[in-house]
Design goal:
Blueprint (H helix, E strand, L loop, with lengths): L1 E8 L5 E10 L2 E6 L10 E3 L3 E5 L1 E6 L15 H13 L4 H17 L2 E8 L2 H11 L2 E8 L11 H13 L7 E7 L7 H14 L3 E5 L3 H10 L5 H7 L7 E5 L5 H10 L2 E4 L1 H6 L7 H6 L3 E4 L12 H15 L8 H8 L1 H6 L16 E5 L11 H8 L5 E6 L2 E5 L2 E2 L4 H18 L1
Parallel strand pairs: 1-4, 1-5, 6-7, 7-8, 8-9, 9-10, 10-11, 11-12, 12-13
Antiparallel strand pairs: 1-2, 2-3, 5-14, 14-15, 15-16, 16-17
């Protein structure tokens, strides 16, 4: 495939106009001002359009599309205990499959090419994701409220089998991460064993960290003043590539540890604001050189996967919180949404519009009123664009969404089956 006469946001997030971009064997093969001599097949006229890297959603619970709008205007504990947990107790593989299909459709519509997920019924998730052609780091979340050995837990057995059967499946589109849910949903032995196992197999770790002040302070009370990051570090959990979701209440010493261990922070600004959890100190994390990426969390607490909207809130939340209009620039935001996320997922050849990188790309219609005029394209994408401006999403060189049409998803059936599964669960509550 070749894009012709198209504006691009290059690997340095700089605008270049009237460019040609050739795709070959799932990768970007050519970027230049002249039409190449190589035949790249199908041609896309990019006049009035912008080509850039797709987005990497670094924290999500995709099947929770089933719970969109179900637990509104509640405090966190009431939201969890009165709405979310009872609903989730009725889930089955079919419901999770269709909930995941819907999440992938919404993701592709909004330019998300890859997601870091934590949930269960993960084989059903993988089945759906593979069908759509999207990328995903799937993790079977592990909790342990007993004294049971990790190796006796059903969730661990499922996680282990998932890794053995699906890690690097679908040509590498599917990766399997180890997922410890959180400090407050596990015990010391579980953390130690998870740390050792993850390190032994060389997997990534995905874990919730310091999402709320209550979680953070109760951890310190339980563990002789240690924060969740300090506690996890003491037990070796951060010794492999780790994505720590939320990190709203992390302390300076935590940031030192995260920098030393190469931890990625997955900031989830809309979910954290909606649940009144707080605002992640992104400016300080960036100042310390910590890799900061962006996550949506689930649509039960967001309530959409509109990633451009997430980027805008990511950029402006810190400005208000820390009373600094220069905090978190559009360039930093775009990096967090693309390259930083790809690196967190272990996708080192992704997240850049550069020759040799995977063709995970999106096309935006920049001839819409909200894009005029363009003094700085990065500013417009972060502050002026909307999800509806995305007209195409490409993963590994394959067009998965274009102008309202999905190439791998029957969207009408997906919506019908998701609604059907949701109604079935509600009838059982």
């Amino acid at each position: 495939m070749i894009f012709t006469n198209i504006s691009i946001l290059d690997e340095n997030m700089q605008l270049q106009e009237n460019m040609y971009v050739g795709i070959k064997n799932e990768k970007i093969d050519y970027i230049g001002k002249e039409m190449p001599f190589i035949d790249y097949g199908e041609s896309y006229n990019g006049k009035g359009k912008l080509l850039m890297s797709g987005f990497y959603n670094t924290h999500a619970h995709s099947p929770m599309t089933l719970l969109r709008g179900y637990g509104e205007n509640l405090a966190l504990q009431a939201w969890l205990n009165d709405r979310i947990f009872p609903f989730e107790a009725k889930l089955d593989g079919n419901a999770v499959y269709w909930g995941t299909m819907l999440a992938m459709a919404e993701s592709l519509r909004f330019g998300i090419v890859s997601t870091t997920d934590m949930y269960y019924f993960c084989e059903d998730m993988v089945k759906a994701i593979e069908q759509t052609g999207a990328k995903d780091n799937v993790g079977r979340g592990v909790t342990n409220f007993t004294d049971s050995d990790l190796y006796d837990l059903e969730s661990f057995s499922e996680m282990k089998a998932l890794f053995g059967n699906y890690h690097n499946a679908a040509g590498g589109k599917i990766k399997v991460d180890m997922s410890l849910h959180a400090e407050y949903t596990s015990n010391l032995k579980t953390v130690q064993q998870m740390a050792a196992y993850t390190k032994a197999i060389g997997a990534n770790m995905h874990v919730h960290v310091s999402e709320t002040k209550l979680e953070h302070e109760e951890c310190k009370a339980r563990h002789n003043g240690m924060t969740p990051i300090q506690y996890f570090n003491s037990l070796g959990l951060l010794d492999t590539k780790t994505t720590a979701a939320h990190c709203v209440w992390v302390e300076p010493e935590d940031m030192d540890i995260m920098k030393e261990k190469g931890v990625t922070v997955a900031s989830n600004p809309i979910s954290n604001l909606k649940l009144s959890s707080g605002v992640c100190n992104v400016p300080e994390l960036l100042r310390r050189g910590i890799n900061v990426a962006i996550g949506t969390d689930s649509v039960s607490s967001n309530n959409s996967l509109n990633f451009i909207e997430e980027m805008k809130v990511f950029a402006i939340a810190s400005k208000e919180k820390y009373q600094d209009p220069t905090a978190v620039t559009p360039m930093e935001t775009l990096y967090a949404a693309t390259r930083a996320g790809a690196l967190s997922q272990g996708r080192d050849d992704c997240g850049k519009l550069a020759v040799g990188y995977k063709a995970d790309l999106i096309v935006l219609d920049i001839m819409r009123p909200n894009f005029a005029p363009v003094h700085n394209m990065a500013n417009n994408i972060v502050y002026s664009a909307c999800g509806g401006d995305i007209s195409m999403t490409v993963v590994d060189g394959k067009v998965l969404y274009k102008d309202g049409v999905y190439t791998t998803i029957d969207i009408e059936k997906t919506i019908f089956e998701t609604n059907k599964a949701t109604k079935k669960i509600l009838s059982q509550l």
